[in-house]
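Predict structure. Input: ArsA family ATPase, 298 residues.
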Amino acid sequence: MDTQYILFSGKGGVGKTSMASTTAVHHANLGHKTLLVTTDPAANLSDVFEQEIGHRITAIDGVEHLDAMEIDPDKATEEYKEQSLAPMRELFDDEMIRIAEEQLSGPCTEEMAAFDKFIDFMDNDDYDVVIFDTAPTGHTIRLLELPVDWSKHIEESSKGSGNTCMGPVAMLTESKEKYDKAIAALRDKERTDFIFVMQPESSSLEETQRSSKDLQELGIYTGHLIINGLIPKEETVIPFFKGKYDRQQEIIEKTRSSFSEVPIKTMELFDSELKGVSMFKQCAERLYQEEAVYEPQP
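Output follows.
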């Protein structure tokens, strides 16, 4: 099978990491070789899986077929610099290398390194499923804009000065091909499923609407929504929870109306913290049961 890509995004604090981790455990349990990658600088995969992960691909204890990695922006930048400079050291003198190092010391490099690492996992067929747990929405939109922006920048520079802020265009030709390939994969609905996670609150719905529109302008479409954090119906015997439950149901209906062509899953609150493999397996049983899905209206 072609590698499938699943990207999770949404506001901070809506439960992206929990839903991405649940989905990763779900696919691994189906026998799919699965990689879970977080691009969030404030990543906490190590906390939720209760084991050290960090900036390296790590097998998850207790889940066959599942690996995970937390991208460290600083380490990604250093790796990108060295990857760029290594072939130059054999061709140029010290002065040229010094100039190249200066060029690689600006914010341009940090931006480039972050998404270059991201794209590396879209240019790799070692896994059946690659799941990206991304940073809060604005950062994610920027991350996904970058391949488009950089591909254009390289193309325009090739017709002009021949230089980018990362150096000569000739050195970046291979990168442009990689970015173009990543853009095509992100826009391919058969290979990429973009999932927004939201809370049943007006502000969360409004941000999801805005972000979905921004993505659509990049040619990337919302594949699914997960409304996370619902009050269980059996708890509505208490007036406080009944009022909150009713308001949440109103948001669900508004979401269904706003995203009438998008399948919507719902996830109720657990009475304990959602962390650890055992909890993710329980959550997956609920999230991926057919009853949890609101299919698009005919």
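DSSP finds ten helices and eleven strands in the chain.
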